[in-house]
Design goal:
The chain is α+β, with helices and mostly antiparallel strands. Helices cover 32% and strands 26% of the residues. A hairpin with a 6-residue loop joins strand 3 and strand 4. The longest helix is centred in the N-terminal third of the chain and has 21 residues. The protein starts with 7 loop residues before the first strand and ends with a strand.
Length: 418
C-alpha cells in the first residue's frame, strides 16, 4: 500500500532583486513582543530601504496601539506589498528553497521553505490531521493576526514545522547537492541585530532531487503517532492562516485558491543546528511571597511526585525553587499554578503573565520594570512527537526554537490572492 502523500509541496515563491538584503530581512513579527526599543532599532536600520519590515505588523504593537493606529499600520503593510510586487519581487515557479542558517550558537541549521496544505492542519486537539499544533493555541490571539492576513496580497513565512527523520533521508541529498554546486544559489546575507547569516538555494519541483525528498517525507512513519508534522514555532500565525482559509472556503473559494496553502519552514527535529529553548514567564501584579506560597501549596498536594527546579528572578536576586512534577513536563505544573494565581487575584492574563524568549531578555525586563521571572528548564526534543501523540498539545508557550534572534528572518514571499 502506497503511503498517503505528505501535505507539503513546491510553490511559486518570490524573492527581492536589486535590494540590500541586510535591510530587507527582519526577524519574525512575534519576537521581542515586550521590547518596543528593539523594533525602533530595526526601523532605524531599515530607514527608507525596501524591507520586509514594511509588510509585517510586529506584535509588540498589538497591545499598545489603538484600533485606529493598528488599522493604519495594517493598511500600510498592504500598500507596501503592492508596491514591492510591482517593483522588487521576482517569482520562481514550482520550486522550494533549501536554506542554511548560521547563528551565534550554531554553525548551520537546515530547512526547506515549502507550501503546506492548511486542509491537513488543525490547532484543535483530537483532530485527525497530518499537521498538529505542538502547543495550546490561545484563541483570543487569532483575530488580530487574521486581520493582518485577510486583505493581504502576500504572506511572509516565519512558521517552523518539525518532522522526525533521524536517518536524514529528506535533507541529506539536498545538502550535498547544494554544497557541490548542483543547485543555483538564490541569496546570501548577514542578518541584522545578532541574527547571524543565511543562504538559500533553489530546488526545482520537477527535479529528481525533490522527488526523492518528497518520497522520504511521504514515507515518514505515521502508524504509531497518526501524523507526520508538528508546528514548532508560529502556532498562532498558522492558526490565523487556517481561520482565514476557512472563511474564504465558506464564501465559495475554490479548492486551489492560493490561501489554502501557507509558506512554512520545514525543519528536521534532530538537526544539530536546531536549538530548543523553553519560553519563560514574566509575572506582574504577583508578589514573590504569593508565588512561593502557591508553589508550596502545589507541592503539598503532590508530596510523592518527583521535583524539577525552576529559577525565580526578581530585581534583587535569582532563587532556585523545586516544583512537583506530576506530568511529563514541568511547564504543566508551572502554568497550572500561574493560572490559579491569575484567577485568585483577578488579574488580566494579557498583562500579568507574558511569555518571554531568552534568559537575558527576561532578566532585562525584570531589572527594568520589576515583576518576577520564571526561568524554565530545557525540553527533551526526542519526546516531543510522542507527547503530542499522547496528550494532544503542550501547554501554551511551552518551548521555542532557539533564542529570539535565532528565529526565522523574513526573506521569501508568496502570493495568497487569486
Amino acid at each position: 500500500m502506497l503511503p498517503t502523500p505528505a501535505p507539503v509541496s513546491p510553490t511559486t515563491f518570490l524573492v527581492p532583486r536589486g535590494v540590500d538584503l541586510f535591510r530587507w530581512c527582519v526577524v519574525a513579527a512575534d519576537q521581542f513582543s515586550s521590547s518596543p526599543e528593539y523594533w525602533s532599532r530595526v526601523d532605524d536600520l531599515v530607514a527608507d530601504a525596501p524591507s520586509s519590515l514594511r509588510m509585517i505588523v510586529p506584535e509588540v504593537f498589538l497591545g499598545t496601539e489603538s484600533e485606529q493606529q493598528l488599522a493604519e499600520r495594517v493598511a500600510a503593510t498592504h500598500s507596501a506589498m503592492s508596491s514591492y510586487l510591482a517593483n522588487v519581487l521576482v517569482p520562481h515557479s514550482n520550486s522550494v528553497v533549501y536554506v542554511e542558517r548560521r547563528t551565534s550558537r550554531v554553525e548551520r541549521r537546515r530547512s526547506l521553505v515549502v507550501a503546506l496544505d492548511l486542509e491537513q492542519y488543525s490547532y484543535r486537539p483530537g483532530d485527525e490531521v497530518d499537521v498538529r499544533a505542538s502547543e495550546e493555541t490561545v484563541l483570543e490571539r487569532i483575530p488580530a493576526r487574521e486581520a493582518v492576513r485577510s486583505n493581504a496580497s502576500l504572506e511572509l513565512p516565519h512558521v517552523q514545522v518539525l518532522f522526525d527523520d533521524p536517518s536524514d533521508r529528506a535533507f541529506g541529498p539536498i545538502e550535498r547537492a547544494a554544497h557541490s554546486g548542483a543547485l543555483d544559489q538564490l541569496y546570501e546575507t548577514d542578518l541584522m541585530l545578532d541574527g547571524g547569516s543565511v543562504k538559500g538555494w533553489k530546488l526545482e519541483g520537477s527535479s529528481p532531487l525533490w522527488e526523492a525528498a518528497s518520497q522520504a517525507l511521504d514515507r515518514l512513519d505515521v502508524a504509531d503517532r497518526g501524523f507526520r508534522f508538528i508546528v514548532g514555532d508560529g502556532n498562532h500565525s498558522l492558526a490565523a492562516a487556517r481561520s482565514h482559509w476557512a472563511r474564504l472556503k465558506q464564501s465559495g473559494a475554490s479548492d486551489n485558491h492560493p490561501a489554502r496553502f501557507a509558506l512554512v519552514e520545514l525543519i528536521e527535529v534532530h538537526d544539530p543546528g536546531l536549538v530548543m529553548e523553553p519560553i519563560h514567564r514574566w509575572l506582574r501584579g504577583i508578589s514573590f511571597d504569593q508565588l512561593k506560597a502557591a508553589f508550596n501549596a502545589w507541592n503539598a498536594e503532590h508530596p510523592d511526585m518527583s521535583r524539577e527546579k525552576v529559577t525565580l528572578v526578581t530585581p534583587n536576586e535569582a532563587v532556585e525553587f523545586s516544583v512537583a512534577q506530576p506530568g511529563t513536563l514541568i511547564i504543566e505544573a508551572v502554568q497550572h499554578v500561574v493560572d490559579g494565581l491569575l484567577d485568585e487575584l483577578a488579574l488580566d492574563p494579557a498583562h500579568a503573565c507574558e511569555y518571554i524568549h531568552g534568559e537575558d531578555e527576561i532578566q532585562r525586563l525584570v531589572s527594568a520594570d520589576g515583576g518576577i521571572g520564571i526561568l524554565l528548564p530545557s525540553i527533551d526534543r526526542s519526546a516531543l512527537f510522542d507527547y503530542v501523540a499522547e496528550r494532544g498539545t503542550m501547554p501554551r508557550k511551552s518551548f521555542s526554537l532557539g533564542e529570539a534572534e535565532e528565529k526565522r528572518y523574513y526573506l521569501e514571499c508568496r502570493a495568497i490572492t487569486d
